[in-house]
Design goal:
With 361 residues, the protein is mainly beta. It is built from three helices and 16 strands. The protein has helices at residues 2-16, 42-46, 91-103; strands at residues 26-37, 59-72, 75-89, 111-133, 138-165, 168-179, 194-207, 212-244, 250-268, 273-281, 287-296, 299-310, 313-320, 325-331, 335-341, 351-358. A hairpin with a 2-residue loop joins strand 5 (138-165) and strand 6. The two termini are 31 Å apart.
């Protein structure tokens, strides 16, 4: 009820804003989905399968941003749905997890340095944005969103493990995390917390001259999600109690010391993410060179490519060397679409993104 009333008020504000140019109200749609896994294909991650495991990975990301509403002049008012899943880990952590869950063979004599950080949430809410400046020169859109959040997961796991043989290992880990479901030590009767969040985002374009232009979009320039009655576990675990499985690989019943609590309030913050591009127009006035980038948490990805005018719009292609991915796109005055993938067989893809826009510029 509260969200519906607030949305109606937002629409009223947008429609009531004086506009000397008397622009028509336009439908607005924006989708940005980004999936990325260094250690296994996206399909196998979803299937909880490590058959195609690759060593050396440090990141897994999944991000969904979907908003739909209206645009009138410089104002945009939408409903917003988004999800964020961010996992950062040491290569040793990924190797040990793969050994335990799949191969049942650890590297004898190896020390594993364990470090895992995770941030996750799902949200539904409202977004209001205003665009300053002129799109053909310099423009800056400032957006603010208010949302209700669920699916909390936020925290850190650190420690070390040592492989005594190919089938036996010891470990000691420290855990401090908040959650909606306890997944490590079997805590039962957990009530999922409710969260309320706010976030700011920026979207800018700058046409420097008739050859060079720059655009950038940054999500979560500022954000804060406040969770009420958030379950938390702070504990240390060691591999003191062991049995041997049917295949000869050790099974550990961890010895745990720590506390389960429920905090009245917990504030979760998400690091900024976004993308940027530099466009250099060639002398034929139909083609251009591109440099593009995407960044999530502490990871920055870059691409090189080009674009050309085609059928009252512009087609583009870019190569992302680090990912081994190809991106194809098309845009005109109303619609834009971009698709990126790193394998012709979607089942084997480690990277995938899809961006759609209607009146999003």
């Amino acid at each position: 009820m509260y969200q519906s009333t607030f949305y109606i008020l937002l629409i009223y504000i947008v429609l009531a804003v004086p506009n000397t140019q008397a622009e028509n109200i336009k439908p607005y749609l924006k989708l940005d989905t980004f999936l990325f896994s260094e250690t296994s294909s996206i399909k196998n991650i979803l299937d909880n399968n490590q058959d195609d495991y690759k060593r050396g990975g440090r990141n897994q990301y999944a991000s969904v941003w979907l908003e739909a509403g209206i645009k009138k002049g410089a104002w945009t008012a939408t409903t917003l749905y988004r999800e964020e899943h961010r996992y950062t880990f040491s290569p040793d952590t990924a190797d040990l997890y793969n050994s335990i869950s799949t191969t049942h063979t650890v590297d004898s004599g190896r020390r594993y340095d364990i470090d895992l950080g995770v941030e996750r949430f799902r949200s539904k809410g409202l977004r209001l944005a205003y665009q300053f400046g002129k799109p053909n020169k310099f423009s800056l859109q400032l957006g603010g969103s208010y949302f209700q959040a669920s699916h909390l997961l936020s925290g850190q796991l650190t420690g070390s493990a040592f492989a005594n043989s190919t089938s036996d290992y010891d470990y000691q880990i420290d855990v401090d995390y908040h959650y909606d479901k306890e997944v490590l030590f079997g805590r039962s009767n957990v009530t999922s917390p409710d969260g309320t969040g706010i976030a700011l985002d920026l979207n800018s374009t700058w046409t420097i001259n008739n050859k060079l232009s720059i655009s950038a979009e940054v999500k979560d320039v500022y954000n804060k999600i406040r969770w009420k009655n958030a379950p938390r576990t702070v504990a240390s675990a060691t591999s003191d109690i062991k049995t041997i499985g049917d295949d000869g690989f050790v099974i550990i019943n961890p010895s745990v010391q720590g506390v389960h609590t429920t905090e009245d309030t917990f504030t979760q913050r998400i690091k900024p993410s976004g993308n940027a591009s530099i466009t250099y127009n060639l002398d034929d006035k139909k083609s251009a060179l591109l440099i593009k980038s995407r960044f999530y948490s502490d990871r920055t990805l870059t691409a090189i490519g080009g674009e050309r005018r085609f059928m009252k719009g512009t087609v583009s292609a870019a190569l992302w060397p680090t990912l081994g991915a190809v991106e194809l796109g098309y845009r005109n005055k109303k619609i834009s679409i971009n698709l990126g993938i790193d394998d012709i067989n979607p089942s084997d893809a480690h990277t995938f993104w899809l961006s759609l826009g209607l009146n999003a510029k």
